[in-house]
Write a structure and sequence with these properties.
Elements (H helix, E strand, L loop, with lengths): L1 H9 L5 H7 L7 H6 L1 H6 L13 H21 L3 H13 L7 H19 L24 H41 L6 H56 L11 H24 L4 H17 L1 E5 L4 E3 L4 E7 L12 E8 H4 L11 E4 L2 E3 L1 E3 L4 E14 L15 E9 L8 E6 L4 E3 L5 H14 L12 E3 H16 L7 H12 L12 E3 H5 L10 H21 L9 H8 L6 E6 L7 E8 L5 E5 L5 H6 L2 H7 L5 E2 L3 E2 H5 L14 E4 L2 E2 L23 E2 L3 E4 L14
Parallel strand pairs: 2-11, 14-17
Antiparallel strand pairs: 1-3, 3-8, 4-6, 4-9, 5-8, 7-8, 9-10, 12-13, 14-15, 15-16, 17-18, 19-22, 20-21
């Protein structure tokens, strides 16, 4: 097992595509290597070769042992997600039953590749997912840096005080020794004169030496202040960057208090150093100019949009946003500071240094006063009831729609800081926003924002984004957004990833790795999916909303298989007993979940059927758990969990009426294309190639309902 111990540490530094290449997800997933590590390394795999037919029985024995151990580990695992996954893997590995030697050679090659990797010095990869600012660890300042800077300033102050004392002593020596001797006509000995002269010369030398040291310390202090402030500005940018990424579910520490403390400390140091320069008596233009520039940058960089406006804004709708000034306690008292907001387009955002040109939109309630909160020690301007009355759009390029055009809010004011002679003009823009005029545009506008948040680069030209990105980046974004929006820690798995890739690239038969395949913005949300009236994003977002509102617990506990293609579905269900079912998201209907199950066919064999997808409206009427309970002919959740054990806690009371009670029902089923059913729909009904049959509501006696039909109350 020693080899796996080292390997498990190394894989944390390997890119995903390398790991998937080493441990093929569909053949020998990494879970097999992990759970059977000790046993695998104790077997003899090196002897296997495809041409050695005599070893087939030995390979078959090892394959059988592998499958049995995986099933045993699965049964003993208390985590239902791990248990189901291991059972699924064990079923998938039966594909080697016809070619056990191929299994033995595969494991042999995996172990050899591990040895090669372990003999190579590890290199930390540069994750391609998202451009990153330097690792800031946290928003807290490096207190050692700040302390070091403060000590340097104290050294400057201390040497100034020593110089002052030396100068006083020198003045006293000149006044009390030379002056009175000349006035009284005294004629001291030459040795005394020499002694006095030496004393005065030494004092003069010491004063000059301290002046040189003082200048050097001042220069070092300004240099170090510059370095500390550069790190602060970098941290502020990193905070804004993480705030941007939070829109797609990335973790974000919104606490600005440590950064505010850092700003205040650097402002205080800047003021003390400027004071020290004034006390020198002689101007030092170089240091004065640098401190002035540092002061201006600090004052202008301390304006932060603490609470961003919604990134999709509908005209005539109210919204709020909060702007915080990190040097609020240092604002000069007197005239209140009023912040003004205006909406700007992409071109104006690229030219913030110049005066904005045409007004591209009209904002209502676009001013707010900067107010200090003594309890939180924060100084904020809150725009509580802002709205966009109208918007002026730019000329669109080609097929670009209004939901692809990005704007931003620009916040600006003039501010005076205590201890500074002149006021400063400060401004800050919000994250990009998309302005819509109708709720039907919301979904497409959100797609624009998701693409911008996920794939924009740090310090980009506003609001440039790439037209294409690798699938691995797209999948990472989808997984992050899905888990954060639903509020779950249960990620999409490799099977979900593969199906999503097959869907967006329209390659249902493609089995290779998609990681480096480029996916375009058009494939994401401009082109409709083949045979469907909606885009990939519209379909995915519908699933996300359904899961968030009705299926969160089911998904979090691993009870929903989720995204799975029909080929994979038939592969894993084809040998299961009648009544085995799994829950998957509909790939033909926006926001639908369906039940795929094994049933008996007319010729005595088996067929796989899919029940009409349940939508949000259906689950508002009756929960998924109750619907599963109602369907008598589905008995075991894949791979083999009794449904009443798994879903019992989701059943609600009271139960449906029994003993022939009459209820309104909607009878629905979806017949898989592979089932070859000859059932004809009644008059007024139509088949749908993915959604199946839909019958008109009727009334029937519950006890006589066919097991191939399910109940839908309230409709």
């Amino acid at each position: 097992m020693a080899q796996w111990i080292h390997m498990s540490q190394m894989i944390q530094c390997l890119p995903d595509d390398t790991i998937n290449s080493l441990y093929p997800p569909t053949a020998f997933p990494i879970e097999v290597r992990h759970f059977l590590a000790e046993w695998i390394e104790s077997q003899r795999w090196d002897d296997f070769a495809l041409e050695k037919v005599e070893q087939e029985s030995q390979a078959q024995a090892l394959l059988d042992q592998t499958i049995n151990m995986l099933q045993s580990i699965a049964q003993q695992n208390a985590n239902v997600v791990d248990r189901m996954k291991l059972m699924q893997i064990s079923r998938n590995m039966t594909m080697f039953q016809q070619q056990p030697l191929q299994f033995g050679v595969m494991v042999r090659d995996i172990l050899r590749k591990e040895i090669v990797l372990l003999s190579t010095p590890p290199q930390l990869p540069n994750p391609p997912q998202y451009p990153q600012y330097q690792n800031r660890q946290s928003s807290h300042p490096n207190m050692q840096d700040v302390d070091h800077l403060v000590l340097k300033v104290l050294d400057v102050q201390e040497i100034r005080q020593k110089m002052h004392h030396l100068q006083e002593e020198l003045n006293w020596e000149r006044e009390n020794y030379e002056g009175p001797m000349q006035q009284n006509g005294l004629d001291p000995a030459k040795s005394e004169i020499q002694k006095l002269q030496n004393r005065i010369q030494q004092l003069e030398y010491n004063v000059k030496a301290m002046a040189t040291k003082r200048f050097q310390l001042l220069k070092e202090s300004v240099d170090f202040l510059d370095q500390c402030q550069t790190r602060l500005i970098s941290r502020l940018k990193a905070w804004r960057w993480e705030q941007h990424k939070a829109a797609i579910g990335h973790p974000f520490d919104e606490n600005l208090n440590p950064l505010q403390t850092w700003c205040e400390q650097l402002l205080g140091v800047n003021g003390k150093l400027r004071q020290e320069l004034m006390l020198i008596g002689e101007p030092i233009p170089e240091l004065q100019e640098r401190l002035g520039q540092l002061l201006q940058v600090l004052i202008q960089s301390s304006l932060v949009v603490e609470k961003q406006p919604p990134q999709v804004i509908k005209t005539q709708s109210k919204f709020s946003t909060t702007v915080r000034y990190l040097l609020g306690e240092k604002v000069a008292p007197g005239k209140p500071v009023v912040l003004k907001a205006q909406i700007i387009n992409e071109l104006q955002a690229r030219n913030l240094g110049s005066v904005p040109g045409d007004n591209v939109g009209e904002l209502i309630n676009n001013t707010a006063i900067l107010e200090h909160n003594t309890s939180s020690k924060s100084t904020c301007a809150t725009f509580r009831n802002m709205s966009i009355k109208k918007i002026k759009r730019a000329d669109r390029k080609g097929s670009e729609s209004v939901t692809e055009e990005k704007f931003a809010l620009l916040f600006s004011t003039e501010i005076s800081i205590t201890g500074c002679d002149t006021p400063y003009r400060i401004q800050m823009i919000s994250l990009p926003v998309v302005v819509i005029v109708h709720g039907s545009q919301d979904n497409n506008a959100l797609a624009t924002i998701i693409w911008d948040c996920a794939f924009s680069e740090a310090d980009r030209v506003p609001f440039v984004v790439p037209e294409r990105v690798p699938w691995r980046m797209m999948y990472s974004t989808l997984n992050s957004k899905f888990t954060s929006e639903v509020g779950t820690k249960h990620n999409l798995d490799q099977y979900n990833q593969h199906f999503l890739a097959q869907k967006i690239f329209d390659k249902p038969d493609f089995a290779d790795d998609y990681s480096n395949t480029m996916v375009s913005w058009a494939q994401f949300n401009k082109e409709v999916l083949p045979g469907r009236p909606f885009t990939f994003w519209q379909w995915f977002e519908g699933v996300m909303e359904l899961t968030k509102k009705h299926l969160k617990t089911y998904w979090s506990e691993g009870l929903i298989f989720g995204f799975i293609g029909k080929q994979h579905l038939h592969l894993i269900l084809k040998d299961r007993p009648n009544g085995t079912f799994l829950l998957r998201f509909s790939d033909s209907e926006i926001g639908g979940i369906t039940i795929a199950y094994v049933s008996a066919s007319e010729n005595g064999g088996q067929k796989i059927q899919n029940i009409q997808p349940f939508t949000k409206r259906d689950l508002d009427i009756r929960s998924l758990g109750d619907r599963i309970r109602d369907i008598g002919h589905i008995t075991h959740l894949y791979p083999e969990f009794p449904k009443h054990e798994v879903f019992k806690k989701f059943y609600t009371e009271p139960q449906l009426p029994l003993n022939g009670g009459y209820i309104p029902v909607s009878l629905q089923t979806k017949v898989g294309a592979e089932a070859g059913s000859a059932t004809q729909p009644p008059p007024g009904m139509a088949f749908n190639d993915d959604t199946g049959l839909r019958l008109h509501p009727i009334c029937c006696i519950l006890s006589s309902v066919s097991p191939f039909l399910f109940l839908q109350t309230g409709g």
